[in-house]
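User: Can you predict the 3D structure for this chain?
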Amino acid sequence: MIMNFSVERENKRIKVEREFDAPVLKVWNAWTDSKLLDQWWAPKPWKAQTKRMNFARGGHWLYAMVGPDGTSSWCKADFKEVEPLKRFAVTDYFCDENGNIDNSFPVAHWDVTFTQRNTTTLVNVQISFNETADLDKYIEMGFREGFTAALENLDGMV
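Assistant: Here is the predicted structure, written as structure tokens:
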């Protein structure tokens, strides 16, 4: 299965390409249904817990990443574009449990596409940042390791 992770500092972007041995509908649902997202999104031993989600253009996903000691880090994803079974785009923020944005953390713009390839699905993720320093902070916070682990969780589900 394909797994590529690259950092393009000059373009202020992270690119992830990941193939899953499952049809696009199953992979799409795992990315867009909060009950399924909560099962794989956080790298173990962390857990994702959705407070609310409206997967539609103009909607949002408010969730916590809960550590093994019970501490929570809150995030909010605002859905900017949704093309069912093909792609979605979000602006992702760190926030408090009410969705109030924490400006001390980077804002990330995600564009996620899904492509059926015979019996597999290829997911392409492009995450862009306003500033190179924001990209660097994301990487320093362990994004590469955490996201890779989360995608491995998804592998076990689909």
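The mean pLDDT is 96. The first strand starts at residue 3 and ends at 8.
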